[in-house]
């Protein structure tokens, strides 16, 4: 092009809802509603927004172990690939264990979670010539609606805030995504059994790790590990793990299935089972 | 006898050296072959260009592009990046793209056009990602804000007037290195 022609080019106006990210690079919805894997929040900003764009999506998740069920659903908004805001609700069904624990058959713990995440540096996908990850910081404010019950089992509070920092890197040449998250929390079972307890009321750092391998542009398989505190004396708590497969046939829909191992929950030993989540948006 | 032996030895060494120097050591011949070698890479470049004109997210940026030049330069650039026996000789990524003010959405749209072109030409997913891993960091030179200067200060010579198709008399009249006449 001659330089005269170069000076005249006017780029098109940005398409504000144009879904600029590559497929799957906005992650899926983790159990508290943030963008990431199934259990762990990642440094990626949810939705397909890139600079100059915004995105929104909704998700619904069901987890079923031998003794319990968990439903979560929520909405996420992402702006400029820089800021993520999420709102989620969790409903934890104790089924028969509820009766055993004296709460009543099918007693449900319900929790609302407001989340925010900011990308502070790096690009998880395109910085393929450096080890530098994408880094984000986030918060999750959680409000448990069964305040009386969680206090009765020993929790100190019925609401609490988790703080986390995540570093995420896609090794593009190898098709391998790695994430490390450090979370400061005193939540019991994600907050479903309150916050703090006889064992500890202090914020403690918890390590959360994810690895995912891209089988194609639209399918990834992975595994996650999430360490959790054990603040309640009446019921010990362990790390959560999963292995998952995520499929995004288009930028408007993703489905994630997983096998989850949640350890002991509310005195019921060795809970594991399946996880299914759907996310729709742009 | 000695002379014959020495001459033969010299000839053999000469032939061996010639063979070594004449077959270029590819950085990664196996990877280049996964793209179909020279013909395959040209097909991928051509499909990328076609996709980029067809995709409304990238079409505006290609409106004034020289398809002839793009075909050659994209193919040679990709070939070089996967370790093939090529050398990209076009302008820098910064110079080529600065006037276009490409944002992340447009950059990623081009990546998707390239992924589609590679899919169409049956390049294995793992090989695709190795090319993308080489190209991805170029976003730093390819993207520029809308309010950035459209013309990068010249640090390299102006494109040769002979870049475009020669227009008969004008090309044969001029001598190499002469100041080109103003284009009509």
Chain oligomer state: heterodimer
Proportion of β residues of chain B?
Answer: under 5%
Rg of chain A over CA atoms, rounded to whole Å, is 20 Å
Average pLDDT of chain A, rounded to a whole number, is 96
Order of helices and strands of chain A: HEEEEEHEEHEEEEEEE
Summed over residues and divided by their number, the pLDDT of chain B gives a mean of 83
Task: Please count the helical segments of chain A.
Answer: 3
Distance between the termini of chain B: 71 Å
Using DSSP, what is the number of strands of chain B?
0
Most residues in contact: chain pair = A-B, 35 and 34 residues
Strand content of chain A: over 45%
Number of helices of chain B: 10
Helix-strand pattern of chain B: HHHHHHHHHH
Fraction of helical residues of chain A: under 10%
Shape of chain A: elongated
The main sheet of chain A orders its strands as: 3-4-5-6-7-8-9-10-11-12-13-14
Main beta sheet of chain A, described? 12 strands, antiparallel, barrel
Sheet with most strands of chain B: none
Which overall shape of chain B is indicated by the principal axes computed on the Cα atoms?
Answer: elongated
What does this 3D model show about the protein?
The complex is a heterodimer of chains A (282) and B (184). With 282 residues, chain A is mainly β. Chain A contains three helices and 14 strands. In chain A, strand 1 and strand 2 form a beta hairpin. The longest helix of chain A is centred in the first third of the chain and has 6 residues. Chain A is elongated. Helix content of chain B is 58%, strand content 0%. Chain B has ten helices and no strands. In chain B, helix 3 packs across helix 5 and helix 3 packs across helix 7. The longest helix of chain B is centred in the first third of the chain and has 21 residues. In chain B, 27% of the residues are buried.
Short description:
In chain A, 6% of the residues lie in helices and 51% in strands. Chain A has 282 residues and is mostly beta strands.
